[in-house]
Amino acid sequence: MTIIKHTKTILSGAALAVAFLGSAHAAIDVSGIKFEDTNKVGGKDLKLNGAGMRTKLVIKVYAAGLYLTEKKTSVADILKVEGPRRVTLVMARDIAAEDLGKAFMDGINENLDKTEKSKIVGQIGKFGEMFANVDAIKKGDVLHMDWIPGTGTVCELNGKRIGEPVSDLTFYNAVLRIWLGDKPVDRSLKPALLGDAR
Q1: Which overall architecture, per CATH, does domain 27-193 show?
Q2: What is the number of other CB atoms lying within 10 angstroms of the CB of residue 187?
Q3: pLDDT of residue 26
């Protein structure tokens, strides 16, 4: 009887451990695209702050997820976060790399004034050139845009680095403002990234 009880206790403990591990790696589903609750960037564990779908008219373009060291609900707090950050885009359709690059450039320009732009104009140019060197971006492709302290803004497409790191934090914050600025590319995506649509 003691052995049976002991066995049940072990099995219950194992089930709880499995349940805990499962919840630790739970994923958020955005129209069938999954975002893990945590990502490791620059040696730090980041938490999913929010995720949503970028649509243009009624067409799904990509799902986006924002990862931070700790969850934040205001844009001002996000732009001040110390440590690594990550924006992950998962393509929901094929798109020409130059069109995606242009959309990013337009998003940056819409959310910066002339003074802000003048400080990072060279870095914005490099960002645009990076997409000019990518042949095509296909449905299901994964683009990470990371801020890594001591390295800079690092972009990876399907696990392969594209372009050179951009060292200025002001530039990474400008990239974030594509989605989180006063004129975001998608007004329904902004609150989702801020965690309001969970």
Answers
A1: 3-Layer(bba) Sandwich (3.50)
A2: 8
A3: 63
